[in-house]
CBS domain-containing protein
Amino acid sequence: MRARDLVTEFPTVSLDTPVLDAARLLADQGLPGLIVVDENGSPRSILPGAQVMRLAVPTYCQDDPALARVVDEAHADTFLRSLAGRTVRECLPENPRELPIADPDATVLEIAALMARTYSPLVAIVEEDRLQGAVTLQVLLDRTLDS
């Protein structure tokens, strides 16, 4: 099985997309992450959903989970509002790792290794500098476990 057998259309966002819009897209479509594209439509980064949470959750709560417990429920329920006015560009790491991109001929094992190496729940599939879609962890597992 090759990437071309697993690839599906996948939504993209730009660097200037508001983070709240990206979070809504993640939630509305049940996505594990998003492909961030540049002005030419080429993949620039993969934005895992967890990275959006990392930006929204106050650092003190990440450093000491017990502190999250002392925030009252009314304020805890609104923590995502802190993302207002911020863009996807601000969610991306300063020193990006290897970009999880593969070509349509990549094998399932190559895609799985790329996901594992980059900690990415999806891999962008690119052919001749054009984004074809993505292979998600869910699709990869579903299809390989059915084999």
About this structure: The first strand starts at residue 12 and ends at 14. DSSP finds nine helices and six strands in the chain.
